[in-house]
C-alpha cells in the first residue's frame, strides 16, 4: 500500500465552493483501479489548508493509471483552480516499526 | 476525531537510527489517553522525509494531555534531535463530503 499525500492550499474565501467541488470529485478518485481509500480533512490551525490522503495499491496505480485517465481531466477541472500555490503531491510507504 | 499531522525532515544519513528510535517511541504515543492510532510512513520521493499521522479524540488530548506529560519528555529525547528543521505539527478535522 502507498499513501498519496497532498496539503491543499485553497484560496481564502473559496473553502465552501471547494468542499462542494471535492464532494463531486471524491467519487471519481475512489472509483479508480487501485484506489483503496481517499479522504479529505481540514486544518484546525490554517482553515484554508486541506489534507488529501489516498491509499493506492502502488505509485503506478496513481501516476500511470489515474493521472493518465480521462477521469483525471474531470478531477483537475473540478479542483485545480482552487489552489494557490499548486500543491506538491508526495507518496509515502507505511513503516512497520517495532522493537522485535 | 482529530488527525495530528507532521512531516518529519530527518537529517540525511540518520534514517535507520531514526526508525529504531521511532520503534521505541510509537508505543509511548499510542498508550496516551485519547490516542486512537499513530502511524509513520516514509516518503518515496524524498527518502529523508517521514510522515507522522496520529488520531486523537481531540486537539486537547494531544496538546494538553500528551505534550504536558512526562511521557512527552521521553518522546522528545528519543526523536527531536533527528529533525532539521524542526517539524510543524498541524491538526486536521475529517470532512464528510457528499453531494447529498
Describe this structure in a few short sentences.
Two copies of one chain form a homodimer. With 100 residues, chain A is an alpha+beta fold.
What this model shows, in words?
Two copies of one chain form a homodimer. Chain A is of the alpha+beta class and 100 residues long. Helix content of chain A is 33%, strand content 31%. Chain A has a four-stranded antiparallel sheet with strand order 2-3-1-4. In chain A, strand 2 (35-43) and strand 3 (49-56) form a beta hairpin. The longest helix of chain A is centred in the first third of the chain and has 16 residues, at 15-30. Chain A is globular and about 50 Å long. Chain A starts with a strand and ends in a 6-residue tail after the last strand. The mean pLDDT of chain A is 95. The interface between A and B is medium-sized, with 30 and 30 residues.
Amino acid at each position: 500500500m502507498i499513501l498519496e499525500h497532498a496539503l491543499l492550499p485553497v484560496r481564502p474565501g473559496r473553502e465552501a465552493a471547494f468542499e462542494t467541488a471535492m464532494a463531486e470529485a471524491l467519487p471519481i478518485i475512489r472509483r479508480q483501479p487501485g484506489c483503496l481509500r481517499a479522504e479529505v480533512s481540514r486544518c484546525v490551525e490554517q482553515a484554508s489548508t486541506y489534507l488529501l490522503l489516498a491509499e493506492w495499491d502502488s505509485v503506478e496505480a496513481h501516476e500511470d493509471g489515474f493521472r493518465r485517465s480521462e477521469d483525471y481531466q474531470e478531477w483537475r477541472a473540478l479542483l485545480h483552480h482552487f489552489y494557490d500555490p499548486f500543491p506538491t503531491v508526495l507518496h509515502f510507504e507505511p513503516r512497520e516499526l517495532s522493537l522485535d
